[in-house]
């Protein structure tokens, strides 16, 4: 396969790079958006949230908010290489891929477009693109995380509505969201993976309570969401009644594709290289230590493999298919690599890595923050253990243990 770029693709990269640098500086300042990928969803600070929304509006006006969406959905229908170039440049700067509406554009919108009806597509997709309506995802529950099919939030049909009662947890952006995709059990007598339905819920409905969850990093982008007799119109059902598991899997596949592309691992590795140039390790400059050099070289090789592997999932989406279980490769590899890089930086810094300010502080403690945040990313969208099972059973066709 020829990985060289055509003159047109090189020109597209230059255009994207110039636009991103100019607009990110204008929206976020020269320091950039900052923080980890996880912290992009924290945004409890109103000023920062308004910066993200303005950046999103600019992305949409420029046609970059949804390069990966087909034109009939309002996107640009960009090719695989153009999508990869955009992702490379966004991750190089540590910016959010989809502005302030990541969950809508990378997984919820494509699910509605493929599995919803025409009225739902016309109603919801345009406002996802503009950022007028922010979306979140109601999947996990206190006793149904990686075992999502164990969910117990109930929805009972009364007249023209579903009446929902229950609780969701680890719901990113619920505190900012206008809408939510919600998995509910509509037939409690059905087998575990049956009797589940996929609803579109207005987060401003009476009976919905959102409470923040403070993480080990001190951020609170996740939330608990409680439902007390929440009424949802029947026309907000996506797909068939009691067949929501199939719809939910489509959303998860898109999410896992995103999980392999939204982590700026190469940027983090480049920062690790700069760190090795400024600190000592075992009494010598870290950049000269063979162990340090070998580890960084290994990380760089793995990051390049990760970038090349994106083409497989992007190709599937470009052909209009829902991403398959191969998307688990990217999600698993990206989050585990991100964790290894962060933990090695802590090893390199030793006790100094925990200092935020004062004598001996390095980069205001950002490497310790990254280590604390990185573990959670290996759990979100299906834990690493779940991804190993999916790859073993559905891709490699290994017998179940």
Helix and strand topology:
Blueprint lengths: L6 H22 L17 H17 L17 H14 L8 H14 L2 H13 L4 E4 L15 E5 L2 E8 L10 E7 L10 E7 L5 E6 L8 E12 L3 E2 L5 H16 L5 H12 L3 E2 L2 E2 L4 H29 L8 H23 L16 H12 L6 H12 L6
Name the structural class: alpha+beta
Return the CATH architecture of the largest domain: Up-down Bundle
Largest sheet properties: 4 strands, mixed
User: Distance N terminus to C terminus?
Assistant: 37 Å
Q: Quote the CATH topology of the largest domain.
A: Butyryl-CoA Dehydrogenase, subunit A, domain 3
Instruction: List the strand order in the largest sheet.
Output: 1-4-5-8
Low-confidence stretches: 34-39
CATH homologous superfamily label of the largest domain: Butyryl-CoA Dehydrogenase, subunit A, domain 3
How confident is the prediction overall: mean pLDDT? 87
Q: What is the general shape?
A: globular
Strand content: 5-15%
Structure description:
The protein is of the alpha+beta class. The chain folds into 3 domains: 7-100, Acyl-CoA dehydrogenase/oxidase, N-terminal domain (Butyryl-Coa Dehydrogenase, subunit A, domain 1, Orthogonal Bundle), CATH 1.10.540; 135-243, Beta Barrel (Butyryl-CoA Dehydrogenase, subunit A, domain 2); 260-395, Butyryl-CoA Dehydrogenase, subunit A, domain 3. It has 11 helices and 10 strands. The strands form 3 sheets. Strands 1-4-5-8 form a 4-stranded mixed sheet. A 4-stranded antiparallel sheet has the order 2-3-7-6, with no helix packed on it. Strand 6 and strand 7 (222-233) form a beta hairpin. Helix 1 packs parallel to helix 3 and helix 9 (327-349) runs antiparallel to helix 11 (384-395). The longest helix is centred in the C-terminal third of the chain and has 29 residues, at 290-318.
């Amino acid at each position: 396969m020829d990985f060289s770029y055509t003159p047109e693709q090189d020109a597209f990269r230059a255009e994207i790079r110039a636009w991103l640098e100019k607009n990110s500086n204008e929206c976020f300042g020269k320091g950039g958006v900052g923080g980890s990928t996880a912290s992009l969803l924290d945004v409890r600070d109103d000023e920062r949230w308004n910066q993200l929304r303005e950046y999103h509006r600019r992305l949409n006006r420029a046609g970059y908010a949804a390069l990966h969406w087909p034109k009939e959905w309002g996107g640009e229908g960009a090719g695989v290489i153009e999508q990869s170039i955009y992702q490379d440049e966004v991750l190089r700067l540590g910016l959010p891929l989809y502005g302030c509406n990541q969950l809508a554009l990378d997984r919820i919108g494509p699910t509605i477009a493929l599995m919803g009806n025409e009225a739902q597509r016309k109603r919801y997709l345009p406002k996802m693109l503009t950022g007028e309506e922010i979306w979140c995802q109601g999947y996990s529950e206190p006793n149904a995380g990686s075992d999502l099919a164990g969910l117990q939030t109930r929805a009972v049909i009364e007249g023209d509505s579903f009446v929902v009662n229950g609780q969701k947890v680890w719901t990113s952006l619920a505190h900012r969201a206008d809408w939510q995709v919600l998995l509910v059990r509509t037939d409690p007598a059905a087998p575990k993976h049956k009797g589940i339905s996929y609803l579109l819920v207005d987060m401003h409905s009476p009976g919905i309570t959102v409470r923040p969850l403070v993480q080990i990093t001190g951020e609170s982008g996740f939330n608990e969401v409680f439902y007390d007799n929440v009424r949802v119109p029947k026309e907000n059902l996506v797909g068939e009644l009691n067949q929501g598991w199939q719809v939910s899997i489509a959303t998860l596949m898109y999410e896992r594709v995103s999980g392999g592309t939204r982590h700026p691992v190469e940027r983090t590795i480049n920062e690790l290289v700069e760190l090795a140039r400024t600190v000592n390790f075992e009494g010598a400059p870290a950049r000269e230590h063979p162990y340090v050099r070998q580890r960084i070289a290994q990380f760089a090789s793995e990051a390049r493999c990760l970038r090349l592997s994106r083409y497989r999932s992007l190709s599937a989406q470009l052909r209009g298919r829902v991403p398959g279980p191969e998307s688990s490769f990217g999600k698993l590899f990206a989050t585990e690599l991100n964790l290894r890089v962060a933990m090695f930086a802590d090893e390199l810094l030793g006790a100094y890595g925990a200092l935020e300010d004062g004598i001996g502080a390095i980069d205001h403690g950002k490497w310790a923050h990254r280590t604390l945040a990185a573990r959670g990313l290996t759990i979100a969208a299906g834990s690493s253990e779940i991804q190993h099972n999916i790859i073993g059973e559905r891709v490699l066709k290994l017998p179940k243990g």
